[in-house]
User: What shape does this take?
Amino acid sequence: TATDVVTLSSDTANLTGTVSVAAYNGIANFGGSLTVTNMIGSTRLNTSAPGFVGAQSNAFSVSAGPPKKLSFAVQPSVSAVSLVPFDQQPVVHVRDIYGNLVTGYSIQVRGQSKTQFPTLYGTTTVAAVGGVATYTNVAMDLAGINFLIAELSVGGNYMWAYSDNITVVAGPPYKLAFTKLPISSAKGLIPIPSFSVQILDQVGNVAPSSAQVSVGIASGSTGTGSLGGPLTVAAVDSVATFSGIYFDLVGVYRLTVSSAGLVSVST
Assistant: This one.
């Protein structure tokens, strides 16, 4: 018939809710308001009341709750080269509302910035083993100040985490592209208006270069003449501008622009 207050505790877990209850007819009923937090694994409950010998429950297992939040436990590299895997690969944690790591889910990362949507390369969806998703070969294509978004959907509910900024720079020079096309008609021996090409990396970022770039008549031209003027120029800030180019004979011509080791471009 005791009405003493009984208190529950645990040596390994935090308890929330009603942990102290007055007994009624010798029985302390804690109802359904008691929650075990901040641990997963095996634990026991201890009871105490003034003037009484405490008791201990049987061991029981505590598992994590459903996922509620993502976080970058390891940030990706602060700088990277286009298409080259980050030197420091990201690690993402999945946790329940109490901070316990939650296993059994796969986390996708994608790239973004304020102005563009870079594409990620490598394995971008990774299973969270023990609540930890570890990436090994993620790379990004577009140069600029970008970041990663980790994403998980559970039952139609989405959760995200955002990485710190990643400054991505262009890869090595790979190809040429016209930035200003030559005109479609010209008169013999009269220089055509200037035109220019840009030096780009494999995905189209402007690649720093001062390479020598040459212009010539492309195959498929029906004219039999030749080009005159300064046919080779050095790129300035990755742009090669041709001025004073002319044809000596009438005909239909296509131009090709090339540079050693780079993919050429033709009109």
Summary: The chain has a mean pLDDT of 91. The first strand starts at residue 5 and ends at 9.
